Structure prediction request, 132 residues.
Amino acid sequence: MKREATVVLHKGKLCAMIERPEACGDCRACDFGRKEKMHYPLSEGNYKEGDKVLIEISDRALGRATLIAYGLPLLSMLLGLTLGAVLFKAEWAQALSALSALLAGWLIIRATEKKRGRNQIYTCRAQKMNPK
Prediction:
């Protein structure tokens, strides 16, 4: 996924300001859709205010992150439902088992979030665009 951005000074730091694309409309499925403008800090590079940059995250990393965010809780909930069906006859107990497993999946994601945040795979990269 690629987005064009403009380098601006935001809260004393150089940041890439990304404006929400018109195509996003009111989707709000990702960070780009939630706000009119987003600011991503630029950690390295020779940038100055007004430069145009291209912010990019690989499709593979985006796919992995999506799979973790949605797949792990879904898989854990289905596993909890199956386990609940084997262990309990009451439907409320089976549902409680599924919800507990869903919560466990979410807690696993939260517990490992910092480790994934340090992984370079999931970081956005900025590169200066050539002026036209």
User: Anything to note?
Assistant: The chain has two domains: 2-56, 59-118. DSSP finds four helices and five strands in the chain. The mean pLDDT is 81.
